[in-house]
Amino acid sequence: MTAAAQFQQVSQVFGDFTAVDAIDLSIPQGKLTTLLGPSGCGKTTSLRMLAGYTRPTSGRVFIDGVDSTRTPPEKRGLGMVFQSYALFPHMTVADNVGYGLKLRGVAGRERRARVAECLELVGLGHLGARKPRALSGGQQQRVALARAIAIQPKLLLLDEPLSNLDARLRVQMRAEIRRIQHETGLTVVLVTHDQDEALEMSDEMVLMRQGQIMQQGSPTEVFGSPRNRFVADFMGYENFLHTPDGLVAVRPEHVDVAPGSAPHDGLALSGVVTDVAYRGVDLLVSVVTRDEKGETRVLSNVRADGAPHVSAGDTVTVSAPASRLVALDE
Question: Which tens digit of pLDDT belongs to each residue from 19-39?
Answer without folding.
Answer: 999 999 999 999 999 999 999
